[in-house]
Amino acid sequence: MASPDRSSSSPLLADVRTLACLFVLWKLLLLCIAYASPGPGYDTSTTLLFARAQSALSENTLLEDFAKRLASKLVRWDALYFVSVAHRGRLFEQEWAWGWGYTNLLGLISKVLPRASSLSPLYVQAFAGVLISHVSHLLSVFMLYGLVHHLPIMNIPERRKVAFIAASLHIFSSAGLFLSAPYAESLFSMLNFLGILLHVGISYGMPLEKYGPSALIRLLLSGVCFGLATTCRSNGVFSGLIYFHHLYMLFHSKINVRTIVTVAVIGLSAIMILAGMLLPQYLAYQDFCVFSPADELRPWCSRSLPSVYSWVQEHYWNVGFLRYWTVSNIPLFLLAAPMLCALIGTGLAAPDLKIDVPGKRSKQASVYLLCLAAPQILLALLALTTFHVQIVNRIATGYPIWYIVIAAGISFVRHVQDHLGRPSSQQLIFRGMFMYSIIQGGLYASFMPPA
Predict the structure, then answer these.
(1) How far, in Å, are 59, 145, 153, 295, 354 from residue 157 at the CA level?
(2) Helix 79-88 to helix 45-53 angle, to the nearest 10 degrees?
(3) Is 388 helix (H, G, I), strand (E, B) or coil?
(4) Most Cβ neighbours (<10 Å): which of 54, 291, 318, 403?
């Protein structure tokens, strides 16, 4: 038996080690910025929350003081709700807007973490969130690197360069400190990337009638991952658009028993994604609409589609079509404009990434890449028209195509602009991401927008 080719695996391992080093250095820089931010910040909610929960009177060690200060700098904005809900459960209807899957995982992880007697359980919840964010972010970096190697783009040497640059861009993502704090963004990215990674290896170029058991299992597991991602962030439901590629493939496949089974598995995968959205809604409906007295029923219970999530978004945060289009929000639209342009522009450019894909597979590769890009395009359009536009800078981190297209542009520019002194647009995007994350880290830790 031939020995494995170490010449091909060694560069990949070197890339993984380099990415891990970049990740550690970047995270240390962001945590230092957060720790050094002055005072309790613009808002004292975090200070009050931890002060109420801290009952121990024993004197803290230097390490415990350090840990408490760092935790207090990371529990800002929505992280306050994530940590509180994971600690005591959901008491109010607006708390059903915070990722049901993420807060439940946060509660489970906090139960197995060691805890110093002088630290309240809320601090443990915060540390659990920080742990989940860092581990999930690192894993999603590796998954994005592997994902590029499975895409129908470019030749193998060029693909490795693009994979490394794309994974590096994900490390320096515009989400910045949100990928270190107790937020759902890192976990969502990991689950979404894993779902795509499971999906991409079996989908393009293979007729549906040739899907074997292993392909069907991977297809089903991708639906599980997308469904779990949806329990963390509701925009995970957009990942179901990836399965539209199979509708295209259906027109190029023979109808037989295996084709029918494949279509059934695709349908089951889509149901799992919907379940990630509907299960929390069902639990909230049981709590507020079934087991509550008739005179205490909430208004959304009588709607034709009684969704607590849409009610909370509309009633408490005024989310809706063009509701955010006010003069006072113009700075937030300007802040989000680069990311909106990047998501839409790279999404539309994604089908052109195919290089060295022969014959009929070229068209199939284009369709598949467009289906992969469709979720980020829809996200950008909804951010522009419907919800709080500034959050697109952090929730875009869970979509791989924009990293890959920008990485391909940077890799191409290295070949054709080596002798030019000016940076490319892709390089400017990277510099903007880096600077934005640094500035945003200090603002976040000081409890100041943008959030």
Answers:
(1) 57, 14, 11, 67, 14
(2) 20
(3) coil
(4) 403
Give the integer Cα–Cα distance in Å for 409 and 162. 9
Token pair of 234 as six digits: 């509701």
**What distance lies between CA 296 and its chain's CA centroid?**
36
Say whether pLDDT at 426 is over 70: yes
Q: What is the DSSP string of 417-436?
A: -TT-SSPPHHHHHHHHHHHH
CA distance 441 to 138: 18
* Alpha carbon distance 90, 92 (integer Å): 6
CA distance 225 to 197: 10
Location of structure tokens 């993502």: 173
Picking from 28, 41, 29, the residue whose alpha carbon sits closest to that of residue 73 is 41
Element (H, E) at 95: none
- At residue 262's C-alpha, the angle toward residues 261 and 266, to 5°, is 120
> Which long-range contacts link 252-256 to residues 24+ away (Cβ below 8 Å)?
252/207, 252/364, 253/207, 253/208, 253/209, 254/207, 254/209, 255/209, 256/209
In which region does residue 75 sit, left (phi positive, over 0), alpha (psi from -120 to 50) or beta (all else)?
beta
Average pLDDT of the residues of the chain: 88
DSSP, residue by residue, 285-316:
HIIIIISS-GGG--GGGGSSS--HHHHHHHHH
Name the token pair of 365.
Answer: 């590769």
Q: At residue 270, what is the residue type? A: A
Check if the beta carbon of residue 67 is closer than 8 Å to that of residue 123. Answer: yes
The CA-atom distances, in angstroms, between 239 and each of 53, 196, 341 are 39, 9, 20
Distance CA 21, CA 423 (A): 26
Q: What is the pLDDT of residues 105-126, one digit of tens each?
A: 999 999 988 876 667 888 999 9
196: tokens are 């795509």
Q: What is the C-alpha separation between 407 and 392, in angstroms, rounded?
A: 20
| Residue type present at position 312 | V
User: What's the pTM?
Assistant: 0.93
* pLDDT tens by residue, 349-402: 999 887 656 665 678 888 899 999 999 999 999 999 999 999 999 999 999 999
Q: Using an 8 Å Cβ cutoff, are 45 and 77 in contact? A: no
Q: Where are the domains of the chain?
A: 22-52+62-292+306-445
Q: What is the 3-state secondary structure (H, E, C) of 165-208?
A: HHHHHHHCCCCHHHHCCCCCHHHHHHHHHHHHHHHHHHHCCCCH
